[in-house]
Amino acid sequence: MKKHLPWAALALALACQKSEPAPTQSSGTAPSTPAASPVAASEAPSASGARDYITIVGSSTVYPFATVVAEQFGKSTKFKAPKVEATGTGGGLKLFCDGVGVKFPDIANASRRIKDSEVAQCKKNGVAEIVELKIGYDGIVVANSKQGKPLAVAQRQLWLALAKEVPTADGKLEPNRYAKWSDVDPALPATKIEVLGPPPTSGTRDAFVELALEGGCSTFDWIKALKSSDEKRFKSVCHTLREDGAFVEAGENDNLIVQKLEQNPNAFGVFGYSFLEQNTEKVQAATVGGVAPTFETIAAGKYPVSRPLYIYVKKAHVGVIPGIAEYLAEFTSPRASGDDGYLSDKGLIPMPDPEQAQYRGVSANLTPLTM
Fold it and tell me: For residue 2, which of 93, 97, 99 has the smallest C-alpha distance?
């Protein structure tokens, strides 16, 4: 199939494909460890000639929520459970934007909003209409093992601990000189700075540098002024993490970060609030600016490092790949993402009622995104 095949011709092309067995689904549960890559696996057609299950890629933060919805959907409807993969937000949106057709994912999960450049890439590859659904909110936590001491940190201190370059007394920048947290501030622990976090492809990484680190960087007036005079330089200073071992890219698997924190009580990890909720017996969260990440503080907008979560849908696939509209209806339903929905038990922070109603309408009408 050609990458830019018009969707009007796609159904005919799907019917002409050779039949292959779809992935095994047990008890309506989406497999968490696929045997093939998402693009290769999504080419598998159903008995009728077209793929008969939804493929979803993207954010590791949204992955647990999408998986739970997929399981409920597979059990409660006539459709197969969607196949969900955690590829990271950036990696997922790249796969999503690669084209239209069974080779390409139907839905991308994202822990940040899609970028203009990604929308442009989608359009270049024939993905003309994208439906954006906000599903709720999440906080980004800095956590350590419960065997270690809890951390109380300000955004300024986080940036000074993790930035590649830090200010000197005379208003210049130099390579980060801080080895211990107490070097940043004597009130902080006298332990080596070691933070495990996500890679650049992760939406959690994007949100962390924009919310936590940029917030701390901007407390220096002369650096804040760069945002108006030289935004590229400002972002370079505020968003670039040190590469001397103090910040360790630990991949997209947040569960692996939790495991490593258990092994090293002096290390800290950066991940979504939902993983904190799932591992409260193992890890504890730092307060940021005196505020602890809780369901209530994130919902109220008091916790400074919080962000919305999204799913993006390829409108051209709706009605051709079975069950997409119904899956969206389940995801945005009050019983899933409402105030007392089953996703709140997994750590998703529900949106205010007006926003919930707004995005249920977007889901029902498949209203395309405009940027």
Answer: 99
Q: Phi and psi for 152 in degrees, rounded to 5?
A: -120, 115
Pair (94, 14) in one structural domain: yes
Residue 1 counted as domain residue: no
Q: Mind listing the pLDDT tens digit for each residue in 121-157?
A: 999 999 999 999 999 999 999 999 999 999 999 999 9
Give, in degrees to the nearest 5, the angle at Cα 254 between 249 and 257: 60
Cα atoms in the 13 Å half-sphere on the side-chain side of 117: 2
Burial class (CB in 10 A: 0-12, 13-18, 19+), 40: exposed
Buried b (16+ CB within 10 A) or exposed e, 171-205: eeeeebebeebebbeeebbebebbbbbbeebbbbb
Task: Output phi, psi for 217, to 5 deg.
Answer: -60, -40
Distance CA 166, CA 271 (A): 24
**pLDDT number for residue 134:** 97
Helix, strand or coil for residue 75? helix
Which pLDDT value is given to residue 251? Answer: 79
**Are 73 and 176 in a shared domain?**
no
Segment 318-345, tens digit of pLDDT: 999 999 999 999 999 999 999 999 999 8
